[in-house]
Structures are given as structure tokens and as C-alpha cells.
Write a structure and sequence with these properties.
Elongation Factor Tu (Ef-tu), domain 3; Phage tail proteins - horseshoe like beta roll fold; about 50% strand; alpha+beta; globular
Length: about 325
């Protein structure tokens, strides 16, 4: 494999291909909540000079894998440096306060990006203007994640927000189908499979809407009595925007029950690598006798971590199974 790890020193304008001095590189993406991360260890005695804030570009066989900036350097007495770099999403960890009315997730991303001077790429139109979104002293990443979650609850469509080669992008997850198949006879080397009703399972949803005129909250509740008999009462209670009408609150409660009212399955996979695979994509998997099911279909990638070492490319990832 042909690696290129370009580090640009802003101070001097010099650029180095540090790949020959790096033994391994790890690139990790998560579907929500954190920026893409590139980590590598380099021997600084080779003449490479860089500091925090300098740009880094990593490519494999001519394909761009990561574009970001140095954020952390940890150097030992032998001039060996552990380096951590993040993509553009790292700058959205800044805290802010926003009030949006009737804005789509894409429009919210655009305004926040303009405020923080970040580059925007392709933003899919969700078609859903969020009635109100008021968030105070929250990270911009949390604000955007909340907008995407509200869109999912209202429309049933999942969107992935990520940095695409230096441009903030929003894509419908169902349209991001990765090439290749991972399964018993294809790339898979190991896996662990867990089922639980402990973390995200709820068979009763109770939403409270503040009511200024009465001084009390209007409560809306939906439940599945069959699953309550099976698992016991597992209730989720949340407060919603007072601007929502009855139909909107009831619709949100039903959508939340549909998502949470089930046993959750978690699959952690180790496999040979697929270039370009990232969290938020859909991937075809083919695994027989996976616990209580046979897995033959698309899964949603929650986390993907690639390791490049010499000519070996491996990956491990977590998935959320769809339609089960």
C-alpha cells in the first residue's frame, strides 16, 4: 500500500511527507458526538517540524482518508511523538447559545458554520423545518446533533453529519451505502454480539409540554402493554417544546416508542479493511448463526476505526442493526 502523510508547518510553509517515519496510523469516526480522529506516532529526529494547529492530510493509494489539524503532541525523551489530529468537527465543540424557529437541520448547520468560519459541503435537504430549537450554552456539535435527532423523530429519516475532506456535510444514511461485503466468507476475522434491554429500551413514553396558562404540564403518554408484561415497565420521560401542538407531541411520542420499544442488538466486528469506510454509512453484512438471528442485510455503522501498519489494513467497527 502507498501511504502519504503530509504535515504542513504554517509558520514556515514547509511540508513533509512523514509516512516513512510513521510505523502505524489509526483513523476513527463516530456517527454522532465527536470529530474524526487521526493518531500516529512519529520519530522527530528525522527532521520533521510541526506544532499544534498545523494541517495534516493522510491518503492511501491516492485516496484521501483524512484532512485535519494537529491538536495534541506527546513527546518522550527519545524524540518519539504521539500525535492526535482532528477534522473540522472539532471546532464545533465550541459552546454557544442559539434560538432557531422553522429552520431545517441543513439551515442550522449553515448558520453555525458561518458563525465559526467553517467550510460547508453537500447538505441534503431534510424537508422538515424544526418548529423551535432553543439551546443555551451547549456545544455546537450538540446543537446540530439535537436538530438531526428532532428530524429523525419527526420524519423517520436518519441523517449523518460529518466532515467530508474538509467540508461539513449532511447526508441521508440510507443513501450512503458502502461498497463491499463483510461476513463469514468475506473480510470478517472476529466479532462479539450482545443483546439487551438495559440501555435504550423503553416500552412507555411520557412527554410533558409546559403550559403557561395552567401553570402545569400537559402530559402525553403511549405504551406497549404487551412488552410491559414481557420486560416490566421501562419508561422514558421527557419535556418537549411548548410551541408544539397536540398532534405534533403525539406523533413524536409514537415515533419514540417505535424506536425504543424493542430489544437492542450490538455487534462489534474485527475485519480486514475497506478504504473509505466511515461511521454513518450503511454496510452489507452476511453472517449466519449470529446468536438468535442470521444477519444478511445492511447495517448502520456507529463507529469505525481503521489501522494502517506496513501493508496491512485492518478495521474494527460497531453497528446498529436495522429493521429488527
Amino acid at each position: 500500500m502507498n501511504y502519504e502523510l503530509i504535515i504542513m508547518e504554517k509558520r514556515t510553509g514547509n511540508a513533509w511527507d512523514a509516512a516513512p517515519q510513521v510505523q502505524s496510523v489509526t483513523y476513527t469516526t463516530n456517527r454522532t458526538g465527536s470529530p474524526g480522529t487521526l493518531k500516529f506516532t512519529i520519530n522527530a529526529s528525522g527532521g520533521v517540524s510541526f506544532v499544534e494547529g498545523d494541517p495534516v492530510r493522510f491518503s492511501v493509494d491516492g485516496q484521501l482518508i483524512f484532512l485535519g489539524w494537529v491538536f495534541t503532541k506527546n513527546r518522550d525523551r527519545y524524540a518519539v511523538i504521539d500525535v492526535t489530529c482532528y477534522d473540522q468537527l472539532r471546532y464545533l465543540k465550541a459552546s454557544a447559545s442559539y434560538c432557531f424557529t422553522g429552520r431545517t437541520a441543513g439551515e442550522i448547520i449553515t448558520e453555525i458554520a458561518q458563525d465559526f468560519q467553517l467550510r460547508v459541503g453537500a447538505l441534503d435537504h431534510t424537508g422538515y423545518p424544526i418548529p423551535t430549537l432553543i439551546m443555551e450554552e451547549k456545544s455546537c456539535l450538540d446543537i446540530i446533533s439535537t436538530a438531526i435527532q428532532r428530524t429523525l423523530v419527526a420524519t423517520g429519516t436518519l441523517y449523518t453529519f460529518f466532515d467530508d475532506g474538509g467540508a461539513l456535510s449532511l447526508r441521508e444514511a440510507g443513501a450512503m451505502v458502502a461498497e463491499g461485503v463483510v461476513g463469514t466468507c468475506s473480510l470478517l476475522t472476529d466479532y462479539s454480539y450482545k443483546t439487551d434491554i438495559d440501555q435504550q429500551t423503553y416500552n412507555s413514553i411520557k412527554l410533558a409540554r409546559p403550559n403557561e396558562s395552567t401553570g402545569r404540564a400537559d402530559v402525553f403518554q403511549v405504551m406497549d402493554s404487551g412488552n410491559i408484561s414481557r420486560y416490566g415497565l421501562l419508561q422514558l420521560y421527557q419535556t418537549v417544546d411548548e410551541a408544539l401542538n397536540d398532534a405534533q407531541v403525539e406523533s413524536q411520542a409514537r415515533a419514540m416508542l417505535k424506536y425504543h420499544n424493542r430489544r437492542f442488538r450490538t455487534l462489534k466486528v474485527q475485519a480486514l479493511g475497506i478504504l473509505g469506510l466511515r461511521a454513518g454509512q450503511m454496510l452489507m453484512m452476511d453472517v449466519d448463526n449470529l446468536g438468535d438471528i442470521n444477519l444478511h442485510g445492511l447495517v448502520l455503522l456507529e463507529r469505525v476505526s481503521h489501522t494502517f501498519k506496513n501493508d496491512l489494513h485492518t478495521m474494527d467497527f460497531d453497528v446498529q442493526e436495522l429493521g429488527v
